[in-house]
Amino acid sequence: MMTGARIELTPATVAAYLHGREVLPAGADPSVRLLGGGVSNTVLSVRWGGDCLVLKQPLSNLAVEDDWPADVSRVHNEAAAVRVFGRLLRAADLDAVSVPGVRLEDERDHVIGLECIPDRATTWKAELLEGRVDTSTASSLGRALGVVHARAAEDPDVRDRFDDPAPFEQLRLDPYHRTVAERHPELAEPVLAEVERVASVDLTLVHGDYSPKNVLVDRAGDEPASWLIDFEAAHVGDPAFDVAFMANHLFIKALHVADRRAALLEAATTFWDAYRERVPWDVERAVVAELGVLVLARIDGKSPVEYVEDGPVATAMRRVGSRTLRGDADSFAEYSALVQEEAP
């Protein structure tokens, strides 16, 4: 049984749970499918009649090799962030990027229910790893992030609701930054300095997991439509973190997918350019500092990228991170050039 919850959602228990919540009509026999919940959640798709719901329940200890505990109440932080991101994106009329709405929130069993995204949608991560690189998606995501960051920074209600740093500490600073400092003692000083810096910033609402795996893309229409998911690490903090988190994945894939390296580097730059055009601040040096830590975290932290094995790409990631933290890159363009230089 999951700590902090009275019921553990599984394909076998979800129908009874939804009947008890009076979400399912009497007599409905839903179709249930276990979705990929990453390392931190149980995620289920439930369909009945013409309706559909995605249920999400957090794990109290994340499913990774290392011990990684986290408070299950983070799912309510996620529900609140979904509502804010959705509201700000709608207000800006950014039709290319959306957020699925919250239809259910259960504080007893720590469950949220979200609107379903079309089944034909695929993760942007899967597209990129297959070498399908669409820079218009990168531009849309940079623009959307910039708009949300800029508008949330001016909203006092956002600051009051997301002022708890615990989700970010538990899900990012401890397993990523501090673990890198432990495993790379020769770099501990600059890494811990970055921990102190990023933890001290409280500028705007930060998604906390803004990455290609959390972008679902539907290309069936005339224009691609994207949905953002997985907001459990949302907090008021440093906008540079979100920018670096997304760019880091694009740069790592540029190292990994050699024959699409140029396109992936272009996507990273396109994302960055679209973002900085929408915000009133300059976070370039902070983004580069975070990139130096995050590239190491995704090979030597508690949540390494699953598609990179120890070998030339891992070596390149370690060299890029080490050189960045030692001062070999100060701008986004210099970091991109460093990735290109170290690529196997």
Describe this protein's structure.
It is a single chain. The protein is α+β, with helices and mostly antiparallel strands and 344 residues long. Helices cover 47% and strands 14% of the residues. The chain has helices spanning 14-20, 74-91, 124-129, 135-152, 156-161, 166-183, 188-199, 239-256, 261-276, 284-300, 312-325, 332-342; strands at residues 31-35, 41-48, 51-58, 97-98, 102-106, 111-114, 122-123, 204-206, 215-218, 225-228, 235-237. The strands form 3 sheets. A 5-stranded antiparallel sheet has the order 1-2-3-6-5, covered by helices on one side. It has a 4-stranded mixed sheet with strand order 4-10-9-7. Strands 8-11 form a two-stranded antiparallel ribbon. Strand 9 and strand 10 form a beta hairpin. Helix 4 (135-152) packs parallel to helix 9 (261-276) and helix 8 packs across helix 10. The longest helix is centred in the N-terminal third of the chain and has 18 residues, at 74-91. It is globular, with a radius of gyration of 20 Å. 46% of the residues are buried. The mean pLDDT is 92.
